[in-house]
């Protein structure tokens, strides 16, 4: 007995292992590796697979599972939180792309239905590739990452209705009455799914969970997903719509996270087969026969999608640099376009020659996505030089009433995410003046109602930094999830205010060195500080004394940051003296009631002799006394500024505490 299907799968997965590993080393997305695997194994290259029918059937299962998991992951709460980006930005991008591509297709003498179908294909971008690249770069929460995510969510929501429209474009669905009937049936299925999500699905899962069998739970998830897809197909709708509705039903239950975790391995395996099956259909001879046409099409796709997506985001008032970076990241053809193209081939909308050209250009745009993300920020900066100022800064109301914020000796916070908000709360509690720069116009509107000193704009612009009086600020805190933008902001701020103290929050240790070289004074890597918080909490659970934990934290911080402190900082005027102060830190302490220093003069030498730290200044009320005389007597509530090594400051801190009776 010959197991032909098993043999084909083994060949495909074995070849995919080699291809994907090689592509990952070259920093190329795995999806491209799967497509190349299909190309190599297909009938137009090495001909390793005799029949593609079985592979295509399993690939359809991958599409069903993909729509199923999207339904499970779909969050109405998250959708409403970024609804402006999703519905206005995403809606404008999809609609304008379809219109422009359809118009271009008709100019090239394509029939209206084919031209419109090409608009459907090119309106979608790759969620899988872009989200993976953004997560790897730590930019998922950056302004351009959030903008791209909003567009992608709307595109994913459009997949089902676009697939429903394919038969009608092909002339297989009758007239308007048939379309209305199909929409009514789809609405009926959604209604049934809604009540199923509220009553039937929770009851089924409650019974299954009582059995305490993981295998039974997984089988139930698959049963609900495929069963709903099958029922919708019997109603004349697509399998994909049924899978999406089944996912929505499960997403409303308390078991959605477990279901998603169990189904993702199956989805990934079958989706890899889908991309392999798409690659098997690509004839490599098309690159030789029509290279100019394919190159022109690739450039046209990137240009149209990049411009339209950037324009859609600009319409929301987001600064041009962020909009352009997000637009370039969306300038590829998506995985759902392959799903639509398969439906178009089956319905006769996409002839074989056009299908081959589309596949070739699509694979190329996907492969170019990492390049677009890498060079997008620099390209955006160059383009912004030629754009009107109001587009560059956005439409979030940069000038509050036409006047600059009047502040001095204040803190400037760039980015009003979790870190920025927490810092602002603390500064407000201690009556320290601050101003915030934020690129999200909807955050601006909310925070201004609360009376915050917040302005809209891109902090990489000198105008925006000037608006918050950067030249008069004491500290700049950069708290954005965009490494490239953080470097530009730090360099520009150092140029505008050489004496400014710059603090940068960054994701990874690898990003510290470039920031120090630019002129940042303090760089706080989340990766490193999180590790400190973890071992601190572990040691506390083992009842290690607090003093020993603090000593351990001080040692780790000193050792791990020391290599960055010794970097050359010749380009930073404010940091030229750092070489003389290697290992030294500055700290402030308050003289507590009953401490050994309360009522004692500096000439007694207790502070210096017992700790080794040096006193620089004393603040008493509103008065600040720098370098006080030895006869100066410290009092309760005095705030003292000291310089010394971390151990010296630690010892000094104990002298300011009340003595035990």
Topology:
Elements: H1 4-25, H2 30-41, H3 53-73, H4 76-81, H5 83-107, H6 112-123, H7 127-136, H8 143-169, H9 176-210, H10 214-234, H11 239-251, H12 256-280, H13 285-289, H14 291-314, H15 320-329, H16 335-347, H17 352-367, H18 369-384, H19 389-393, E1 411-414, H20 418-429, E2 434-438, H21 441-449, E3 454-456, H22 462-467, E4 475-478, H23 483-496, E5 501-506, H24 512-518, E6 522-525, H25 526-541, H26 546-565, E7 585-590, H27 606-611, E8 614-620, E9 623-626, E10 639-644, H28 646-655
Parallel strand pairs: 1-2, 1-4, 2-3, 4-5, 5-6
Antiparallel strand pairs: 7-10, 8-9, 8-10
Helix pairs in contact: 1-2, 2-12, 3-11, 3-12, 5-6, 5-8, 5-14, 6-8, 6-16, 8-15, 8-16, 9-10, 9-11, 10-11, 14-15, 14-17, 15-18, 25-26
């Amino acid at each position: 007995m010959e197991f032909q299907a098993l043999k084909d799968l083994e060949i495909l997965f074995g070849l995919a292992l080699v291809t994907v590993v090689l592509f990952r080393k070259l920093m190329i997305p795995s999806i491209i590796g799967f497509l190349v695997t299909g190309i190599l194994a297909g009938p137009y290259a090495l001909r390793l697979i005799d029949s593609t029918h079985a592979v295509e059937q399993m690939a359809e299962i991958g599409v069903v599972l993909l729509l199923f998991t999207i339904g499970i992951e779909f969050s109405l709460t998250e959708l409403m939180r970024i609804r402006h980006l999703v519905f206005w930005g995403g809606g404008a991008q999809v609609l304008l792309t379809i219109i422009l591509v359809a118009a271009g297709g008709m100019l090239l003498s394509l029939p209206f239905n084919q031209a419109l179908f090409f608009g459907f294909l090119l309106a979608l971008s790759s969620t899988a590739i872009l989200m993976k690249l953004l997560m790897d770069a730590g930019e998922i929460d950056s302004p351009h990452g959030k903008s791209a995510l909003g567009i992608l969510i709307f595109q994913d929501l459009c997949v089902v209705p676009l697939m429903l429209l394919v038969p009608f474009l092909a002339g297989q669905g009758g007239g308007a009455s048939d379309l209305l009937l199909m929409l009514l049936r789809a609405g009926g299925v959604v209604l049934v799914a809604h009540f199923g999500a509220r009553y039937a699905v929770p009851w089924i899962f409650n019974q299954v969970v009582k059995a305490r069998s993981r295998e039974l739970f997984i089988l139930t998830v698959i049963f609900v997903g495929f069963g709903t897809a099958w029922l919708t197909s019997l109603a004349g709708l697509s399998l994909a719509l049924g899978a999406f509705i089944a996912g929505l039903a499960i997403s409303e239950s308390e078991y959605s996270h477990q279901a998603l975790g169990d189904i993702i391995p199956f989805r990934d395996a079958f989706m890899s087969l889908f991309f392999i099956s798409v690659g098997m259909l690509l004839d490599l001879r098309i690159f030789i026969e029509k290279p100019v046409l394919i190159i022109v099409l690739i450039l046209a796709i990137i240009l149209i999608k990049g411009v339209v997506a950037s324009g859609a985001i600009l319409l929301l008032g987001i600064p041009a640099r962020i909009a352009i970076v997000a637009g370039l990241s969306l300038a590829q053809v998506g995985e759902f376009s392959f799903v639509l193209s398969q439906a178009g081939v089956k319905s006769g909308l996409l002839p074989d020659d056009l299908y081959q050209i589309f596949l070739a250009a699509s694979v190329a745009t996907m492969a170019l996505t990492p390049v677009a993300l890498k060079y997008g920020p620099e390209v955006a900066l160059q383009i912004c030089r030629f754009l009107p100022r109001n587009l560059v800064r956005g439409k979030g109301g940069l000038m509050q009433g036409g006047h600059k914020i009047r502040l001095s000796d204040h803190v400037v916070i760039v980015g009003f995410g979790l870190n920025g908000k927490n810092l602002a709360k603390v500064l407000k509690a201690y009556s320290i003046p601050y101003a915030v720069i934020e690129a999200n116009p909807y955050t601006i509107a909310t925070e201004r109602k609360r009376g915050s000193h917040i302005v809209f704009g891109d902090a990489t612009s000198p105008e925006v930094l000037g608006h918050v009086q950067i030249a008069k600020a004491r500290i700049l805190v950069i708290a954005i999830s965009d490494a490239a933008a953080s470097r530009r902001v730090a360099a520009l701020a150092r140029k505008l205010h050489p004496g400014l103290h710059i603090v940068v929050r960054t994701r990874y240790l690898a990003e510290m060195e470039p920031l120090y070289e630019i002129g940042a004074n303090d760089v706080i890597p989340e990766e490193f500080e999180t590790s400190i918080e973890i071992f601190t909490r572990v040691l506390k659970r083992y009842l290690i004394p607090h003093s020993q934990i603090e000593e351990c934290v001080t040692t780790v911080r000193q050792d791990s940051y020391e290599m960055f402190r010794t970097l050359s900082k010749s380009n930073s005027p404010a940091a030229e003296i750092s070489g003389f102060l290697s290992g030294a830190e500055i700290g402030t302490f308050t003289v507590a009631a009953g401490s050994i220093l309360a009522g004692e003069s500096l000439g007694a030498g207790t502070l210096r002799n017992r700790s080794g730290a040096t006193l620089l200044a004393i603040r008493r009320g509103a008065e600040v006394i720098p370098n006080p005389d030895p006869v100066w007597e410290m009092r309760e509530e005095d705030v003292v500024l000291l310089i010394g090594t971390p151990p010296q400051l630690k010892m000094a801190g104990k002298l300011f505490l009340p003595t035990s009776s």
